[in-house]
Write a structure and sequence with these properties.
- By secondary structure, the protein is α/β, with parallel strands linked by helices.
- Helix content is 46%, strand content 19%.
- A hairpin with a 2-residue loop joins strand 7 and strand 8.
- It is elongated, with a radius of gyration of 31 Å.
- The protein starts with a helix and ends with a helix.
- 35% of the residues are buried.
Length: 319
């Protein structure tokens, strides 16, 4: 095959899947609403069952639901029939995914899924299957054809299953009033969570350069040079009055012949930008970007508390 043929094959596959997703959208009806209501009102968790490719889809749906406020657990059909059915409680709802609805494992398992749970929802491409027969609600994921060239490998069917799982998750999020801060609680280690919840004091520099207003040039140079940030904070009785950067020092040295009598108050930049230690880290990043500066003074009750550096925030995924 030449390159244009390969590209056309890829486009055809995507076109087929888009068409099947359109069919799914047009099929959504009372059954979908009933499934959402059953899951949302359940006193227990949602157990998702599958085998083969449907098992992989099920795991993804479980991950999405758990991260968006619907407690869920995956149960592999072949493991369920050999002892893992014990995970299902009578307060739980079961969602069983099977394209055919008639695979031996699913057929054997369906009566027990129905008996042990409060409700059984089938996600199947065959509304006349054994799985459908035992289910309280049928979510029809029928596809006219798979996207693969021989029309056999699960492609369109798994895409439709995945999309329907996402649709369930989105609706349940809205019903539960699930917001950004809730999402962040379940993602504390990732950049999404950090941007929504991380506070400034989590990313403070280990250095806290500081001089008084009356500090001489030698003390100023030592303070600026001893910090990797190239900056020192000028204070007067714990009140922040200014900052001196290595750039301020260079400009002073180029313009002054006699620096022996220079003190911090003479060369500092007054009214420097600062942020409270309990502010969100993303707020600090916004100030750093807006003012095009590399460091920001951190305060506690208006007093000097430390330094936060833009490079540390970037490294931590704050944007």
């Amino acid at each position: 095959m030449n390159q244009p043929d390969i590209l056309q094959l890829a486009k055809n596959a995507i076109d087929i899947e888009i068409s099947e997703l359109e069919n799914l959208k047009n099929r959504l009806s009372e059954d979908f609403l009933k499934a959402v209501e059953i899951i949302n009102s359940a006193k227990g968790k949602l157990i998702i069952v599958g085998i083969g490719k449907s098992a992989h889809v099920g795991n993804k749906i479980v991950a999405t639901l758990n991260s968006t406020g619907t407690p869920s657990q995956f149960l592999h059909a072949s493991e369920a029939i050999h002892g893992d059915l014990g995970v299902i409680q009578k307060t739980d709802v079961v969602l069983c995914i099977s394209n055919s609805g008639n695979s031996p494992e699913i057929v054997n398992l369906a009566p027990f899924l129905k008996e042990y749970s409060s409700a059984l929802i089938a996600m199947t491409g065959n509304p006349n299957s054994k799985l459908a027969e035992f289910s309280d609600v049928i979510l029809n994921t029928h596809v006219e054809k798979e996207a693969c060239p021989i029309k056999l490998a699960p492609t369109s069917s798994t895409t439709v299953q995945m999309a329907l799982g996402d649709a369930l998750a989105v609706c349940l999020m809205e019903l539960n009033g699930f917001k950004e801060n809730d999402f962040a609680k379940f993602h504390p280690g990732g950049s999404l969570g950090k941007n929504l919840t991380a506070k400034v004091d989590q990313f403070l520099s280990s250095q806290k350069p500081q001089v008084s207003e009356n500090s001489g040039i030698r003390e100023i140079i030592i303070s600026v040079s001893g910090s990797t940030h190239g900056i020192t904070v000028v204070t007067d009785n714990e009140k922040i009055t200014g900052v001196i950067t290595d750039g301020d020092l260079r400009r002073m040295l180029m313009s002054e012949q006699d620096v022996s009598k220079i003190i911090a108050k003479d060369i500092m930049s007054k009214n420097p930008k600062s942020i409270d230690k309990n502010a969100l880290a993303k707020e600090a990043m916004a100030v750093l970007k807006e003012k095009n500066i590399g460091q920001l003074i951190v305060t506690e009750n208006g007093k000097y508390f430390g330094i936060i550096d833009i490079h540390r925030l970037l490294d931590e995924g704050i944007n």
